[in-house]
Amino acid sequence: MRLSIVVPCYNEEAVLGETLARLGRLLEELCEAGQIAADSELVFVDDGSRDRTWALIEAASRSSPWVRGLKLSRNRGHQQAVLAGLMLARGDATISVDADLQDDLGAIPAMLKAHAGGAEIVYGVRKRRDTDTFFKRATAEGYYRLLARLGVEIVFNHADYRLLGRRAVEALREYREVNLFLRGVIPQLGFTTAQVYYDRAERFAGESKYPLSKMLGLAWQGVTSFSTMPLRLITSLGLLISLASFGITLWALWVRLFSDSSVPGWASTVVPIYLLGGIQLLCIGIIGEYLAKTYVETKRRPLFHIEHDTAAVSTAGGARVQDLARQQA
Length: 329
Ligand code: UDP
Ligand code: MG
Fold this sequence. Notes:
By secondary structure, the chain is of the alpha/beta class. It has twelve helices and seven strands. α1 packs parallel to α2. Bound molecules: uridine-5'-diphosphate (UDP) and magnesium ion.
């Protein structure tokens, strides 16, 4: 089995030497153990770095047979860098991992084992987050809960450390979204999945490339790319206020007609305010419902992926034979 390890790098000159060495050693060991083919690769994606990152990658690609470098024409962000690596990877399985060695590489053999055991997607899940600050941990975990509540399917405490089999990568290729949030897209693919637990370490060297602003951007991306719940909430709110205003209207009329405590002009002022407010919100909500539909349609997400096709055996044509051979390998 040919393995591709995809590593997004943005201004990572401080850690890159160590990352290259460790990943190179890992591939050598796996290759010697016969777990992966000799034409496996380490795909380093330079996400428009401004330091010596690309120079290091280029040099490594000349000196090490494993290393392959991809340079994006400018900084596009972590998600896009990972996607670029996955789309160009040649392996039968791909593993994406951060350049800063925070994700324990020791989990990779377990991922390969789960993949050999039939899992098309293997999620790396953080066991504990002691190395993260309290703030980061609390916001991250709160965020995963919020997403779950908004109906977004995600894997709790899983970031972008995962194995994807060839079929999963090809399925991912069919998603043409510009607003990319891989953690949300991958669970949509389906297939047989497995989870591998690991401890998250401190960044080996250098500084985080994810300042709070980028983090918030990614978080918002997760909500708005996968949930139309906020729009739906407007409809509910509109309905609620409309009902309340209807009650208030009845009450104002009752006060006006059957008691003498009403101030002249009060009912005719108050009633339209509530009523119009409620109706307007409801109408915005209805527009929101259509907007939500349009939004979902514009994504053009694939409607299904085939996991198995028994006919593939009997009618095996050229491409299918290769597919089959790849699956059996
Ligand atoms: N990264 C990237 N492009 C960016 C920002 C980050 O490719 O615009 C890479 C970075 O080099 C690292 C990974 O994404 O390999 C995760 O970034 P980082 O470790 O800084 O995030 P943190 O672990 O602090 O959340
Ligand atoms: Mg990191």
